[in-house]
């Protein structure tokens, strides 16, 4: 049944939020705050509904014409119909709302602690990485594109305008090359990653395949002829969510990708995590260093001499290396083997000494003893049960918590507040323009600190 609604705000996901005449919340894909819309319900539950737009009766002032017209853009750039200022304000509001409701701070205290979201200079063409799903479609054609939000279907795509210009046409080029390379065979390719650095000019193509026979030379030759890369690798793994990496084979070139952050060099293996927005990652590092009492000056990070800092969920050293360069004694804990190897190499290459522990952060933390400060940057699930209690037992004066998920972050904020810490402030940083995703750097201090 149709209804006219006015959009009130953006939700925590791709959709906008309004209320039906009955008072029930309705999530509308493609809505913008201020829009007056004729909608049709697509799903109705006890406490909320979902709807699609039938007609935009009165467009909101913040509505802009989408830049990216392909159907795959819906999953990758779901907020592209909003002017950038509205995207940033909505991200700030969502962090405030999470702190207010999930952490129980109330609106006033939450609003006072959350700073305005730091915007990205580049709002398109900012990603150093494109991650593509690969599959044969019902007609037996090899497709390369983006996974639809929440499902495994691959929506074919020719371009990716949120990625650097140098790689934005990679989906089309690689689809053609891989169709030619495979012919009538299925080589088990289920994912393709492309990384590029505008600072080092390094470009890597990673083919994720099942661990079966693979004509390496043949595929490498065809890819080289159609796409300029400094490294082509094959990652052997099983498809699915918990991907267990069985090995990485170099098909051509260097076998790694290289990026620079604040002048430090990072070599990154294909299976390893690395921040996808290089310029904004530098803002994260600056926020963490300043939050812990250091500074990032013209000569680089300084001011953390003789400070013992643990960097949990360290990846390849995005925070560990600048912290060590600022004078801190750093203990890094990371569970993924490829990132641990990257970090060892990156620490050597940048001339810093870091104690590196390969293992689970929750298990290793109680063994670290007393700390002066701590950095945590966990995956979207946030901190495992017991981690906040272990952090409190290590007595760091300050904690920098970097999060990519305001919901789990707010849950963990409440745990910090119950364990002797108070949130000093939260700084959202936009690493993902045109999407609802937001990073938050938050700084905690001991409640009884002088
Ligand atoms: C969001 S990434 C952050 C990495 C790094 N701080 C950065 O900014 O590049 C999270 C990292 O935590 C690692 N990780 C996931 N679960 C972990 C665990 N239980 N213990 C330690 N590290 C873990 C992942 O492999 C990944 O490198």
From TrEMBL:
Residues annotated as binding S-adenosyl-L-methionine: 275, 313, 334, 377
GO-annotated biological processes: rRNA base methylation
Keyword Protein transport part of the UniProt annotation: no
Stretches assigned to the TRAM domain: 1-55
Active-site residue list: 404, 404 (nucleophile)
Signal peptide: none
EC numbers: 2.1.1.190
Domain of life: Bacteria
One GO MF term: rRNA (uridine-C5-)-methyltransferase activity
Keyword Transferase in record: yes
CDD domains (alphabetical): AdoMet_MTases
Keyword terms of this UniProt record: Methyltransferase, S-adenosyl-L-methionine, Transferase
Pfam families: TRAM, tRNA_U5-meth_tr
Stated family: Belongs to the class I-like SAM-binding methyltransferase superfamily. RNA M5U methyltransferase family.
PANTHER family from the UniProt entry: RNA M5U METHYLTRANSFERASE, TRNA (URACIL(54)-C(5))-METHYLTRANSFERASE
Name of the molecule in the record: 23S rRNA (Uracil(1939)-C(5))-methyltransferase RlmD
């Amino acid at each position: 049944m149709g209804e006219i609604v006015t959009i009130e705000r953006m939700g925590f996901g791709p959709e906008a939020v309004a209320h039906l005449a009955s008072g029930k919340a309705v999530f509308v894909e493609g809505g913008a705050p201020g829009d007056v819309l004729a909608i049709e319900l697509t799903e109705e539950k006890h406490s909320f509904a979902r709807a699609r737009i039938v007609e935009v009766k009165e467009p909101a002032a913040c509505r802009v014409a989408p830049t990216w017209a392909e159907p795959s853009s819906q999953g990758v750039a779901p907020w592209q119909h909003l002017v950038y200022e509205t995207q940033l304000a909505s991200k700030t509001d969502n962090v405030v709302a999470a702190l207010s409701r999930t952490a129980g701070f109330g609106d006033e205290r939450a609003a006072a602690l959350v700073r305005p979201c730091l915007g990205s200079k580049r709002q398109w063409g900012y990603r150093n990485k494109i991650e593509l799903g690969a599959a044969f479609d019902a007609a037996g054609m090899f497709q390369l594109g983006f996974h639809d939000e929440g499902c495994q279907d691959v929506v074919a795509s020719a371009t990716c305008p949120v990625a650097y210009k140098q790689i934005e046409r990679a989906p089309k080029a690689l689809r053609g090359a891989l169709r030619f390379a495979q012919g009538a065979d299925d080589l088990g390719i289920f994912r393709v990653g492309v990384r590029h650095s505008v600072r080092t000019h390094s470009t890597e193509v990673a083919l994720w395949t099942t661990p079966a026979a693979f004509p390496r030379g043949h595929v490498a030759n065809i890819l080289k002829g159609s796409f300029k890369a400094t490294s082509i690798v094959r990652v052997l793994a099983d498809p699915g969510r918990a991907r267990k990496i069985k090995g990485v084979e170099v098909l051509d070139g260097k076998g790694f990708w290289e990026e620079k952050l604040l002048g430090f060099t990072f070599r990154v293996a294909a299976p390893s995590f690395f921040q996808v927005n290089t310029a904004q990652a530098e803002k994260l590092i600056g926020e963490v260093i300043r939050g812990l009492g250091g500074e990032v000056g013209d000569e680089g990070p300084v001011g953390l001499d003789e400070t013992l800092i643990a960097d949990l969920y360290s990846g390849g050293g995005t925070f560990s290396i600048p912290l060590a360069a600022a004078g801190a004694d750093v203990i890094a804990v990371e569970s993924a083997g490829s990132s641990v190897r990257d970090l060892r190499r990156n620490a050597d290459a940048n001339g810093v000494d870091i104690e590196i522990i390969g293992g689970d952060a929750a298990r290793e933390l109680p063994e670290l003893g007393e700390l002066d400060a701590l950095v945590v940057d966990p995956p979207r699930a946030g901190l495992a049960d017991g981690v906040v209690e272990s952090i409190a037992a290590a007595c760091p004066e300050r904690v920098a918590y970097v999060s990519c998920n305001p919901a789990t972050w707010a849950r963990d904020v409440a745990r910090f507040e119950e364990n002797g810490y108070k949130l000093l402030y939260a700084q959202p940083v936009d690493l993902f323009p045109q999407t609802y995703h937001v990073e938050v750097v938050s700084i905690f201090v001991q409640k009884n600190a002088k």
